[in-house]
Amino acid sequence: MFRGLSVYTGNAHPEFAKDVCEALNVPLGRADVFKFPNGEIFVQIKENAREHDVFIVQTLAGPNVSDHILELLIMLDAFKRASAGRITAVMPRFAYGRSDKKDQPRVPITARLLADLVGLAGADRFLTMDLHQGQIQGFFSIPGDELTAFLPLIDYFGADYAGRDDAVVVVPDLGFAKKGRNFAERMRLPIAFIEKRRLGNTGESQIVDIVGDIGYRRAIIIDDEIDTGMTVMNTIDALQERGVHDIVVACVHAVLSGDAAARLCASGIRELVTTDTVPIPTPRHEKIRVLSVTPLFAESMRRIHEGESIGALFTSPTVQLPLRVR
After folding, report:
1. Is residue 321 a contact partner of residue 300, using CB atoms and an 8 Å limit?
2. 16, 45, 80, 212: which could join 122 in a potential S-S bond, CB 3.0 to 4.6 Å?
3. What SS3 state is found at 30?
4. In this model, does residue 223 exceed pLDDT 60?
5. Catalytic-labelled residue, pool 35, 102, 179, 196
6. Is 46 labeled as catalytic in the residue annotation?
7. Which of 29-33, 206-210, 246-250 comes out lowest in average pLDDT?
């Protein structure tokens, strides 16, 4: 048996870890995680972790994503050497999800490399949310759980959109087709898909075809992640050209690199709905709504600690988690 549930965090998204601890009613563990002047990262755990059930909360996003990855790996090694009973790497957003296959000559499969490193550094389990592709689960040599933010998103949109005859769900990336279809079915809405072509490795893309009917007044564009926003912007343009002017955009991970947030909010959409898996750029535009998934992560961590089912969170009608809109 483990001595207790302990939660620690790096510098990627400490507010997320604090909210998780508040939901669990446990204090955030004490650890020093900082850079020396020469750029090297230093980690020291400031309390006894021997035989504890340790959860390291570190989202892998932001302009310093490489630093955040290295912080996580070094923290995993530190807890392994501190004789923690079990170590779970909690990564609300897993980095390099788009590098999940060898689709060009002489390129790496970085998602597989990162999954290997997490296990080699000392993690016994992983916990994440809405991977870019489901196959990434199989890249890990350790067991883990993939949560989904679709239940909070469905709860948020349900009252205004569920079962309407003038609304459609639009998926801007065929790689997201299965999850998008599941979302549309739960919302009782038709679905349309955007077939796109990426233009090199710049993040730019071009719409090739639209599969499905978009002759509706309202649309929900949904994706797992928005980075530069180019794909979503192209989708918005295509919908507006066809007379769809009441548009909302939803995603799980709002990376929003550069001026993506400003461009999206100025595009004529009604709102951008996302979660707090990654820090939202500040100042935050008034059109951005953030749903907190910290209650879902906190309950999942409690269930892992207690040896209970994670799947029941998404299948049992008796499990109700609060919908928190920031």
Report:
1. no
2. 80
3. coil
4. yes
5. 196
6. no
7. 206-210
Same-domain check for residues 233 and 170: yes
**pTM score:** 0.94
Helix axes 110-121 and 65-81, enclosed angle (nearest 10): 30
**Cα gap 150→158, rounded to integer Å:** 11
Give the domain range for residue 211.
150-291
Task: Find the helix packing angle between 150-161 and 177-187, rounded to 10°.
Answer: 40
In the DSSP assignment, the letter for residue 118 is: H
Q: Which residue has the tokens 């510098």?
A: 11
Give the domain CATH number at 248. Answer: 3.40.50.2020
- Tell the residue number behind the tokens 């389990």, with chain if given: 125
CB atoms within 10 A of CB 212: 15
Amino acid in the structure at residue 285: H
CA–CA distances in Å: residue 208 to residues 69, 168, 173, 178, 212: 35, 20, 11, 20, 13
Same domain, 187 and 173: yes
Q: pLDDT tens-digit profile of 99-152? A: 998 888 999 999 999 999 999 999 999 999 999 988 899 999 999 999 999 889
d(CA 69, CA 59): 9
Same domain, 48 and 181: no
Q: CA separation (Å) from 279 to 12, 16, 69? A: 8, 8, 16
